[in-house]
């Protein structure tokens, strides 16, 4: 089962920073999940929220900042006493860091609230620059973005993110995806059986509790997206799945 570190090892270090990514890599994550927005000057940067308010010492929307302004912010608001040097990474910096490491990247395009112009094309071209195509999963909650990504489907894995189980097989077919990233609480035996019958790869988010990890294993999901990749690795290594 694939272990995907959600925003890096985000329970132990500032989310979406190199401190969290390095720790996730050290803890044996198979992949790192991260989030991409565009600055005012169309530079793809790594952050979950549309604003910088929660995780930095700044205020306001990312789309209103230039990259030079973004670089001045501290990204350690959640761990201010333990981490003092963290900044907001660019996607290019993350690709540069990853290219020599045995790890995949799950890049979530954060365009479900602000649908940034040309985000898909900008991200795709940057991935191609570093020849990372075979090690990337692109995901989004935005169905229109998923449709726009279809021109790259022969080159990249595209995953639809959703917490809505209704008509899911039909939506997956209409969107042309072969991967689903689903909220763990909506996954059950019936849904998983349908996904397997339709040859869909399923990864569950955000799975932190030991009992939830074991449940997802028993349901035969293909991966978990977790804030605690080290703990997830230890749980998986020790767990004996139910006999089928």
Profile the largest sheet. 8 strands, parallel, barrel
Query: By helix and strand content, what is the structural category?
Result: alpha/beta
> Helix content range of the residues, please?
25-40%
**Cross-sheet strand order for the largest sheet:** 1-2-4-5-6-7-8-9
Fraction of residues in β-strands: 15-25%
Order of helices and strands: EHEEHHEHEHEHEHEHEH
* Nearest-integer average pLDDT: 96
Low-pLDDT segments, ≥5 res:
none
> Gap between N and C termini, in Å?
16 Å
What is the 3D form?
globular
**Count of individual helical segments:** 9
Radius of gyration: 18 Å
| Total beta-strand segments | 9
Descriptive report:
This protein is an alpha/beta fold. Helices cover 31% and strands 19% of the residues. It has 9 helices and 9 strands. The two termini are 16 Å apart. The mean pLDDT is 96.
Key words describing this protein structure:
single chain; 244 residues; alpha/beta; eight-stranded parallel β-barrel; 9 helices; globular
Structure in a nutshell:
The chain has helices spanning 18-26, 67-70, 91-98, 119-129, 143-149, 168-175, 189-197, 210-218, 229-238; strands spanning 2-6, 31-38, 44-46, 104-109, 136-140, 157-162, 179-183, 201-205, 223-226.
């Amino acid at each position: 089962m694939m272990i995907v570190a959600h925003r890096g090892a985000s329970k132990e270090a500032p989310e979406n920073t190199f401190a969290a990514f390095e720790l996730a890599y050290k803890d044996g994550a198979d992949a790192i999940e991260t989030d991409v927005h565009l600055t005012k000057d169309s530079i793809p940067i790594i952050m979950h929220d549309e604003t910088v308010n929660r995780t930095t010492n700044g205020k306001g929307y990312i789309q209103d900042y230039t990259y030079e302004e973004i670089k001045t912010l501290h990204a350690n608001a959640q761990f201010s006493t333990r981490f003092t040097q963290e900044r907001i990474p660019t996607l290019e910096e993350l690709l540069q860091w990853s290219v020599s490491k045995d790890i995949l990247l799950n890049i979530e395009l954060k365009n479900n609230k602000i649908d940034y112009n040309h985000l898909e094309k900008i991200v795709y071209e940057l991935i191609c620059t570093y020849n990372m195509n075979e090690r990337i999963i692109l995901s989004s909650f935005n169905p229109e973005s998923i449709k726009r990504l279809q021109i790259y489907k022969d080159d990249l894995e595209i995953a639809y993110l959703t917490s809505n189980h209704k008509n899911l097989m039909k939506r997956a077919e209409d969107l042309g995806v072969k991967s689903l990233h689903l909220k763990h609480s909506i996954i059950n035996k019936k849904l998983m059986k349908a996904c397997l019958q339709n040859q869909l790869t399923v990864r569950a988010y955000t799975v932190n509790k030991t009992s939830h990890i074991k449940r997802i294993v028993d349901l035969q999901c293909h991966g978990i997206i977790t804030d605690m990749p080290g703990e997830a690795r230890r749980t998986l290594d020790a767990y004996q799945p139910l006999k089928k």
